[in-house]
């Protein structure tokens, strides 16, 4: 049997009475709000009400009137579906009114959405995709311990169902590795998930063994015993290691008709059940908890204004864009707000250059891509600008975390190296061939694919000031520097490298295929054909004006070449931009259409139909075709 924390005598009978009343209010308001909306997760909120009553009354140091207070603790609802409880907490602290709670919850246009988002000033990040809140909390705790160096504590309320997510254990592993004693996970072990019992049900011993195996301190409590909860949270705040409070609770607690009963997840109570439950709980209350504000601290503002001196490259020199990324990352590190994270491939992504110079702002996440992105989201909560790098293929493991980061309105710079068949002999498992499509689909994202070192460095600098999710795709091999060091590369732009007023066809590439297009253009010029070459380095937003000009100059003859699968990448960006043009378009799309193998870069590009010969064939066919 799991060892429970010892009860302390710090709570007087009057304190216990106040906590019971507050917990009853949180339960009643969770029922009232979800019943009023006709949807929500009251049963998941009822089980954790005692935990939150103790936390907000006695342990959460938070100035509710000033959510931007740098000393505030952070409260992350990893079990974001328990939003009725979170919003009831906001009412109990005076942050929102009872009217907003009842008439706003889950309503169109309301900030009290079905799952929390940062549209609410007391919410740091969007949650609701399970297994993400605790990993993000790790990032906030990293900032607190190593960068802000402030005493705020990070509390993450987790559900027992999400303890089956690997990301939870990645989070605990990194919390232990970085000795985040300022982090506490509170696990609401209520036994029931959406469709039935959870994997471990109430086996707190098993949870405890797992938590301790990851090097964190486990504290087991009865999640409805207010004194045990109080003692556990007090112990957690003073611990020397990351803590996990494992609270045995009952789903639907306080409503006997649904307590520990399957089939009530995500369902508001029926009107008659809700009426009886509210009567049993003593009805609505208007308790306002003063809480405990943080101690005064010196405001910390990450320095974002350091002067960036980008590296210079000799024209014609062969430099890999992944190397230019590392050089530019080091340059933007002059700003104290810039931090870097990598997934144990920094010698390949060249993020190691930053790590050597700014070790205090570099966080190695090892082979934990989900935790890497989550930690970056947490770091940006505290005002830092994270740059996250790994192989393009491996970012796909963290795609849901990137998607949720956009909902959190996070500012992240992602770099995916070793993209496309160009990487050569490693084979298809290492080839990012879906990345442009996946990141383009993220709301508000920016997708960049430079072809040389100068443009890569300039785009890295632009990402340092870009809002939202930015993604930079880099190349493994070395290619000639095409641009002068003073050239400008605005996001949303492009570069015309060949062509004039009499162009017969436009060759459009990005990254490595720009070099193939140039080689093809030179061969066509030797045949007497005027050819336009466009470096479409900004894949999203795309330079529609340049594309329209190419259509009109060439009579609509375009060849789009990309080292990517045909769906959702460069070709899709071009076609989407021209979809409403209403002018004739004769477009040939060259992309990787078959499963690649190992080989040299040239062999693989030729086999995929994106090499120089394939471009020549496509261009000649279009030139020969009637307008």
Rounded mean pLDDT is: 96
**Major sheet, described briefly?**
7 strands, mixed
Morphology call? elongated
* Portion in helices: 25-40%
Instruction: Determine the N-to-C terminus distance.
Output: 81 Å
Strands ordered across the widest β-sheet? 8-7-9-10-12-11-17
Number of strands: 19
Radius of gyration: 28 Å
Runs in which pLDDT lies below 50 for 5 or more consecutive residues are: 3-7
Q: Structural class, from helix and strand content?
A: alpha/beta
What is the number of helical segments per DSSP (H or I, 4+ residues)?
22
Give the percentage of residues in beta strands: 5-15%
Question: Secondary-structure blueprint of this entry?
Answer:
Blueprint: H1 13-37, H2 42-46, H3 49-59, E1 74-77, H4 83-92, H5 98-104, H6 133-148, E2 154-159, H7 166-177, E3 183-189, H8 204-213, E4 217-222, H9 226-237, E5 243-248, H10 271-281, E6 318-320, H11 321-332, E7 338-342, H12 346-349, H13 352-357, E8 362-364, H14 369-381, E9 385-391, H15 399-407, E10 412-417, H16 435-440, E11 446-448, H17 453-463, E12 469-473, E13 478-480, E14 495-498, E15 505-509, H18 512-526, E16 531-535, E17 538-540, H19 544-554, E18 557-561, H20 570-578, E19 586-590, H21 601-608, H22 612-624
Helix pairs in contact: 1-3, 1-4, 1-5, 1-10, 3-9, 6-7, 6-14, 11-17, 14-15, 18-22
Cofactor: Mn(2+); Mg(2+); Ca(2+); thiamine diphosphate
Keywords: Calcium, Magnesium, Metal-binding, Thiamine pyrophosphate, Transferase
Subunit structure: Homodimer.
